[in-house]
Specification:
Layout lengths: L2 E10 L5 H18 L2 E7 L2 E8 L1 H13 L3 E12 L10 E5 L1 H6 L8 H4 L10 H14 L1
Parallel strand pairs: 2-5
Antiparallel strand pairs: 1-3, 1-4, 2-3
């Protein structure tokens, strides 16, 4: 069965404190387990970067809700499509808040100003922010 995936970046409408984030993650993880959705959420410099994957209909519903969620401003779809196997099979929603020092150490780091991000031509098949996501997950694994 092919799985649908969606990846996006957005500005936080209001910067969430750690308690809010923990409560949100608890709710998301429980819901994702029931819907067979896995993925990764990064908070970097006031931005959400998220990758979710799972059954086509469920991902479509969740992404529609995310687009209407008042916690997001300037949401930009980075990539979507289908994969044969999960990229984050063991993560109902992995989460990491990354400080500026850590961001600078991630290979492929870019200034995450949305306007600037799209001025750079997309070289190859991956959006620059997706490269940050993939590099981050590689760093977690090592």
């Amino acid at each position: 069965m092919k799985l649908r995936y969606v990846s996006y970046i957005s500005n936080q409408a209001k910067i969430l404190n750690e308690d809010h984030v923990e409560n949100l993650l608890f709710q998301i993880r429980e819901k994702n387990k029931k819907l067979a959705i896995t993925g990764l959420l990064l908070l970097i410099q006031g931005k959400f970067i998220q990758y979710i994957e799972g059954p086509d209909e469920e991902i479509e519903k969740v992404y529609k809700k995310i687009k209407k969620d008042p916690r997001h401003n300037e949401l930009v779809l980075l990539d979507s499509g289908f994969v044969n196997e999960r990229q984050f099979k063991d993560w109902s929603m992995a989460y990491k808040k990354i400080d500026d020092v850590t961001v600078e150490n991630i290979t492929g780091y870019k200034n995450l100003e949305l306007d600037q991000l799209f001025l750079e031509p997309n070289k190859g098949d991956k959006h620059p922010v997706l490269k940050v996501l993939y590099n981050f997950t590689k760093a977690l694994a090592s």
